[in-house]
Design goal:
With 211 residues, the chain is mostly beta strands. It has one domain. The chain is 0% helix and 46% strand. It has no helices and 18 strands. It is globular, with a radius of gyration of 22 Å. The N and C termini lie close together (7 Å).
Length: 211
């Protein structure tokens, strides 16, 4: 069974649609906030009064053999210079590094997905080799390439399938006993010389095949 997710937000790539709020991270332990009851005794014990306050709890449930988008790939804000430059996001350390005459600030986060199978089940993960970002209200573009997949600690790499696409179709084994796993995607944003300012959006598709 194959399922896919896609997305991206400001100068970001994501496994869903750009500029959408990332899906709440998969909750591994469900919590509940109980009703709080406070008893205040009056001067006459027979006339006790009770006041109460209630709290709310939320949870995101991942169905078996599903794929959810937790957060979008975000390179933050960049100020280009008079020559081409790059911003590279490491999905493991979640750190952005730059080359060339460029200034970067703001959020730096990889795209993150959650899935659920069973322990020791094999999954294949497919993602594109490049992503195109287009300026909102214009036609100018930037590209993201050198996509990198980080699966630690939930997926153990088993090997590729020989299709020659690099990260295009690799096999992993689910490690957690509850079958819930996360993985992250980073890459390199290529900023042109004197790149026109604005918000650049794009989408990309990630597919997980459970076997």
């Amino acid at each position: 069974m194959a399922l896919s997710g896609a997305g991206l937000r400001e100068n970001t790539m994501f496994r869903g649609t750009t500029n959408r709020k990332p899906v709440v991270r998969l909750l591994r332990t469900l919590g509940a906030v109980p009703v709080l009851a406070l008893a205040a005794l009056a001067a006459n014990p027979a006339q006790a009064q009770r006041v109460s306050a209630s709290g709310a709890s939320t949870a995101t449930v991942v169905a078996p053999l599903a794929l959810l988008v937790n957060q979008s790939l975000n390179f933050g804000r960049v100020a280009p210079g008079n020559a081409a430059a790059t911003v590279t996001l490491n999905p493991d350390t979640q750190v952005c590094t730059t080359t060339g005459p460029i200034v970067r600030t703001g959020v730096c986060q990889p795209a993150e997905f959650s899935g659920m199978g069973t322990r020791r089940m094999t999954v294949r993960i497919q993602m594109p080799s490049t992503i195109t970002l287009t300026r909102v209200g214009g036609t100018q573009t930037m590209t993201v390439n050198n996509l990198v997949l980080d699966t630690t600690p939930d997926l153990q790499f088993l090997g590729g399938n020989g299709n020659g696409l690099g990260n295009g179709n690799r096999r992993y084994e689910i490690v957690p006993t509850n079958g819930i796993f996360d993985f992250r995607i980073g890459g390199r944003l290529n900023v042109g010389a004197n790149q026109l300012g604005g918000v650049y959006n794009g989408t990309f598709v990630v597919t997980v095949q459970y076997q």
